Model the fold of this input.
Amino acid sequence: MVGDLKGRWELLVGIMLTLYTPSAAASQIADVCSNFHTAGILNGSSLHVQFLLYTSHSPGCGQVIQVNGNNTLGTSHFNASLGTKIIIHGFRVFGTKPTWMDTMIKALLDAEDVNVLAVDWVQGSTAKYHHAVENVPKLSLEVAVLINSLLDAGATEKSLHFIGASLGAHVAGHVGQLFGGRLGRITGLDPAGLKFTEASPEERLDPGDAVFVEVLHTDTNKFGIQIPVGHVDYYINGGRDQPGCPYNLYKYMICDHARSVSIYINAVLGLCSYIGYPCPSYDKFRTGECVTCTNPLLPSCPLIGQEQMALTSGNNTLLSEVQLFMMTTPSDPYCAHHVLLEFTLTEYKNISTNINIQLRSDTYSTRTIINIPRSEDQGKTMVALEGPLCQVHTVVIWVPTSFSSLWKQKPDVSGRLCVSELPMSDRNEMVCLPKTLTLRGNSREAEKLATKCN
Done:
């Protein structure tokens, strides 16, 4: 009897071990998908953090990563040998998941094989902005616990890349400071300005928070920070008033601020080469004073999303911080070819002169104005084209007639137009119209532009 019972017990244990010992098929990680929380006015200020992991194994499935107590990193798809992108959103007006989050995650996974961790702090960033600001250092401590777990799992500090939008950029800065600036990279997408413009570097994003800090500015006159806070600061269209933003009140209010996210996603996907030109100011850039890529502080005009340009070849010491300017077109993906236009008068005028110019290709048309100040013989301006200059085949030029000059004889304007695509170099020299133009009244002169696409 005892032998029978022993045999039955061993059989039962064997069955249990068979059921609960992972086999090759059963040991595969179950993809239990989760999504962002939502919040309302009553719970929007109470911080509740969730970390969601996305990988190439299940790009549309967010795996919850717990790092306090029961650490679930080891049973997830996290691969410590790959780079890790950590996305942190900002203030949420309506307590919902950012509409751009899924697009950003997909773009990062499409671009390279990486781990993507989305930091969901919707509960804690909704309803009251000042409460969300107060939660920034608290959230940073929770993210730091996540980072320590990643490092314990075999990730390296240099392999970590934070992408923070608005308030999220300052969260990334706080985390980077906690790790002594050793984390690989921070990308700040229009970092929040309110409550941070006058803050000390310890309280906001700054160049000391990572090995490389790049920042996109698109809304410095409303929600974004105006001061430079990175190793490279891209002031897109001067950092404010983005072309193509609608006049719908809500969309108008957030459009400039959100443009930084759209542009960065497009850069990740390689849809555009967003080139930044080092310059003291946007006004100087617009008037053609910064048209080359020979700044001694940079190996070339850097591209958004290209971190290697900020590292020296001999060691990983960062170069000096620099402000960069660029223009975009009004329509997604906002790609722009920067073209400099110069109009030189045959003789000085004792009044300021405006020259209207239209550039035409087979697919688009762009208008701009060159102002020639009084007692000067040349005016310059920059224009953003949807395609390369070589696609432009016709230039239309005229001097606008104002209402007050309808009964006055306005003197003729005589001069020559030259154009060049940036960056200017031996390959991109000025191309001039073949003859000097005499512009009378509001009459328009249309001339062929002799450029060729290689």
About this structure: Confidence is low (pLDDT under 50) at residues 1-27, 310-318, 403-407.
